[in-house]
Design goal:
- The N and C termini lie close together (11 Å).
- A hairpin with a 4-residue loop joins β7 and β8.
- The chain has one domain: RNA polymerase II/Efflux pump adaptor protein, barrel-sandwich hybrid domain (OB fold (Dihydrolipoamide Acetyltransferase, E2P), Beta Barrel).
- It is mainly β.
- The chain is built from 2 helices and 10 strands; from the N terminus they run βββαβββββαββ.
Length: 138
């Protein structure tokens, strides 16, 4: 199956914390980044997720925020790295960040945000993704 989501990070399930209805699933990428996803217990069972199982974290670029500097947020996924590319369109830009572990994350953000944050290749930044925005595929 092919999908249009730009961010598809391969790795293995590292942990599953089950709650009453949902589970917090942590995937460790091949490069070492940890991505946390909040999915239903039904999905955990349907996908037969267990520790060590190969899986893919799928994240639409529109669900990825880019931040610079030090900040505290409730978002579980905050991946530090460096901007490697900014591709500007008429209204939005696709910003590509390479994490410290070597994963590549794309974010679709407004041109005005790119300019306000001074985003350009070489700038240190963080990709921020809520756990509820991360899908798990097997």
């Amino acid at each position: 199956m092919s999908i249009s989501a730009r961010n598809q990070l391969k790795g293995k399930i590292e942990s599953i914390q089950e709650g009453a209805v949902n589970a917090i699933v942590t995937l460790k990428t091949d490069g070492g980044d940890k991505i946390t996803s909040s999915i239903s217990l039904e999905a955990v069972k349907d996908l037969e997720l267990v520790n060590g199982k190969e899986a893919v974290a799928v994240i639409k670029a529109t669900e990825v925020l880019i931040g610079i500097g030090d900040f505290k947020l409730s978002a579980r996924n905050q991946l530090s790295g460096e901007i490697v590319k900014v591709q500007e369109g008429a209204v939005n830009a696709i910003v590509t960040l390479k994490t410290e572990s070597g994963s590549t994350i794309s974010s679709t953000i407004s041109i005005s945000a790119v300019k306000e944050l001074g985003l350009a290749a070489g700038v240190k930044a963080k990709a921020v993704i809520k756990a509820t925005s991360v899908l798990i595929a097997v």
